[in-house]
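Subject — a protein and its fold
Fields — amino acid sequence, C-alpha cells
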Amino acid sequence: MGITMETPEGLPLTTTLAEMGKANTNLRSDSFTSTSSGSSDEEAPAHKNAAQHADDGSLERSDSGSFDNSSNGNEDLPFFDSVDSKDDDSRDNGDEEEKDMLATTTLSGYLRLLMEDVVSYIMLLITNKPFRLFLVSYVFGHMGEWFTYIASISLMERMLGDDSENSRTSLGILVAIRLLPTVVLSPFGGVLADSYDRRKAMIILDLVGAFTPIFFILATFLEHSGLHPYYGVAMIYFATVSQECVCALYEPCRASMVPLLVTGDADLKKATTLTGVAWSAVAAFGSALGGFATSLFGARTCFCLDGVCYLLSAVLMWSVGGNWKVAPDVKYESVWLQIKGMTVDGGKYLSTSFFGGLVFFKATCALVTGATNVLNVSLSERDTDDSIWFISEMDTEQKLGILFSITGIGCILGPLVSDPLTNIEQPKALQLACVFGFVAVTLGCLGVGLFSPFWAVCVFSAVRSAGMGILWLDSQFLLQKFTAKEMLGRVAAVDDALATLSEALSSLLCGFLQDEFHLSAMAVSKCRLLWVLGLQYCGPYTTSPAEGQLRVTKMVARCHQRRAPMTLLD
C-alpha cells in the first residue's frame, strides 16, 4: 500500500546554515520593501483583513500558500524552492549578499533577527483581536487538561500502590487510551471542521468538555469506597476516554482555524509559532502548577479547575464572533454519506499531492518520544543523590510536574531559536530544521539514558523536547502552506491521528518493558536509541534521523524530474 506523489520540477536537496539565514534575510528585506511602498494589497497587515471580514468569515489567503491539487495549478512551483516570484538576479549583488550572510551567521545579527521576530509576534497579538482571543481560549482549555492529567496519574498511583507489579502497564494503558480516541475520531473532527463553522464547533465542544471532569471526581470517591481499586482505575479510564473524545474532535477545528485568522504566509508562520509556544508554555507552567496543586490541594480540586477552564475557553471563543465556515453548502442524503464522502475526498487529496508524505513527520518522531510520559513517572519516583538540596526535598508529584514543565520549556526554546533561521517562503529550510530536530531528540534520549542525577535528566529532557518542538511546528508550517484551506481540517486530522497512534504504541511498549522485563527508566531510554537507529533503515514511511528524511527528499526530487507519479514504497 503506497501513497502516490506528484511533484513539479526542481529540488535543491541541501543547504548550508548560512544559505538558510541569507535566504531568510533576503525575504525579510523584500517583504519590508513591498509593504512600505504600499504597492500591493495582498501584503496588507493581517489584522486589517481580520477586522474587515470578521462578520462573514471570508478571510482569504493573500498568497499562493494554498493549492488545489485537483487543478495542478502549482506545477511550476518547486517544492523546496521559494514560491516568491521575484527574480533571483535582483538579490545577487555582491555587497548585499555579504551583508545578509554576516547578519545571520554572526551572533549579533542572529540576535537582531530574533528581536525583530519577537517584536513582530507582539504586534500580531496587539493588532489582531480575533487571533488574540482564540489564543487565550486555547491556553485556558489546554491548561485544564494538564491539571486533570497530572491529578489522574497521581490518583491512579495511589489506588494501585507503589508495590503493584502492573502499575507501569496500567499507566501505559492510561496514556494509550488518552491518545487512541484521537486516532479514531480525528477523521470525524476533520470533516466537522471542513463542513461547519469552526468557531461554533469549538464552543460546543468546550461546553461538552466542561462536564467530563465529573467522572474524574466520581473516581476520587471510589478511592475511599472500600471497593477493589480497579473499579476506581476503570472510572479514570472512562473519564479519560470521554475527555479525549472531545479533544479529538476539537483539535482539527483548532488547527484549521489558525489560517483563517491571519492573511499571508508571514503572519501564518507567526500565528502557528505563537500557538505552539502557547501549548509549550502551558505544558511548562500548567503541568508544574498541576503537580504542586495536586500535592497541596488534592486531585479533586484539579478536576474542578479543569471544568472551569473549559467554560472560560468557550466564553473567549464566543467573543471572537463572525462566521468561520469555509465549505460550500453541499446537501448529502445522510450524515454518514457526508462523512464518508468527505473522508474519501481527503484521502484522495493527500494521496495525489506532492506534499502528502509530510503527514508522517510527526508520527516518526512520536515513535521515539511517545514513551516520555510513562518514563517521567518512573524518573520522578526514583531516589537520586542530588547535591542540590531543594531537589532532594521534592516529593513525587512535584518532580513529575517539574519534568513535564521542562518538556514545555524545551518546546518553547527550540522553535524560538530556530525561527530566525527559517522562513515559510523557504520550504527547504523548514525541512532541514526538521532534520536538526531529529538530531536533538536523539541526543536528549541518549543523555537521559546515561546520566542519573535529576538535574541532568531535566537538562537532556529539555534538549529532546526542543528538537520535538522544532519538528512539530516546522512540519505543520509546511502542511499549512501547501494545503488548500477547505481541505486543511481533514489533512490536520490525518497528521494528528498518525502522530497520536505512534505515541500510544510507544507508551504501551514502554510500560510493557518496565513491568514484564523489569527494565529501569534509564534502560528504556537507551532502548529508544535503538528505535531511532531502526527507524533510519525502515524506509521513507517511518524514518526519523537525518539520512532517512533526506531519503524522502531525494525520492521527491526524482519525482520532480520525471514529472510522473511515484509511490513511497518504490
Summary: The longest strand covers residues 4-5. The mean pLDDT is 72. Residues 359 and 495 are 5 Å apart (CA to CA). The longest helix spans residues 229-261.
